[in-house]
Amino acid sequence: AQASLNRLDMYISPLTPLMALAAAFTLLTFLKFLREERRRRFVQSAFSHYVSPQVVDQLVAEPEKLNLSGEEKDVTILFSDVRGFTTMSEKLTPTQVVDLLHEYLTPMTRLIRENSGTMDKFIGDAIMAFWNAPASVPDHPRLAVETSLAMLRELDRLNAGFRERYGFGIEIGIGLNRGMARVGNFGSEDLFDYTLIGDNVNLCSRLEGLTKYYHQRILASQAVRDGAGEGYPWREVDRVRVKGKHEPVTIHSIMEREGPEARAELARWNEALALYRAARFEEALDAFDALEGFTGDKLYGLYAQRCREMIQNPPPPGWDGVFEHTSK
Q1: Cβ count near 193 (within 10 Å)
Q2: Of 133, 175, 177, nearest to 151 (Cα)?
Q3: 34 Cβ partners below 8 Å, 6+ apart?
Q4: Which segments of the chain are extended strands (E)?
Q5: If you average pLDDT over residues 271-294, what whole number do you get?
Q6: What are the residue boundaries of the Guanylate cyclase domain, all occurrences included (predicted)?
Q7: How confident is the model at residue 62 (pLDDT cuts 50, 70, 90)?
Q8: Which fold does the domain 72-324 belong to in CATH?
Q9: Bigger pLDDT: 186 or 206?
């Protein structure tokens, strides 16, 4: 063969195959870079408004963790809402309403994202967020609780300015729940959102709605309390059946007062609640009245009124102490 090539005055350098391989490798590397760059830009454009830059970087580095088609995940969900927003907005001009909402929603959104949460959506003045999707977030119930407490502290700071400018502050309620939900892109072929759906999402919304009834700023399910741990001044509020659910749910608040007096109050509350659950309503009434007179907490007044009603109309034998809410 070499003789034939020599007769044709042709010579093939031994470097030629190596150069071809190098060119092919360079081309493949460049194409891989383009694919990764497109993927990076897609993830950034799709999630930069939902999650923190750190979570976006994690999704870019580990794309296998991203499942847009939908998956069942253990998540912690947060709903918050401004109480009496319609009445409040009637006192302001449309421009003032927009300015107030912008000033309120901006720091709340930042707190959620800084604590590894995913911003789902705004529903008027309401906020919906969740943890542990699209990227896994260890300790997500605790982070949701920490975020909620930080939101309340930020609200107290904002209200000082709101009262000065508008003549009033705003109050919010926060509902927290943990459980399995379906997470992914949902909507039509033309318009969709990365969000989550399921019974646990609905329950979280119900808990937020009950914050006004119980006069609490935070209400959390038992699953959130179990996941977040006992490092908070938890107060069991009630065992309830919410509208649309048959199984009772134990709900908790976090006492925002601290110190020996707060601990003594919590102990007295637990004793009063035990009397109520044992259907010893006259003793429970005395305990709740004393607590309300001591602290002014409207939760105690709510239970005192329940006791009066139970004394007038005793529950049937075998009463389980569960309160049924018939409205959302």
Answers
A1: 12
A2: 175
A3: none
A4: 71-82, 118-123, 126-131, 172-187, 192-197, 218-221, 234-241, 249-254, 323-324
A5: 96
A6: 76-208
A7: low
A8: Alpha-Beta Plaits (3.30.70)
A9: 206
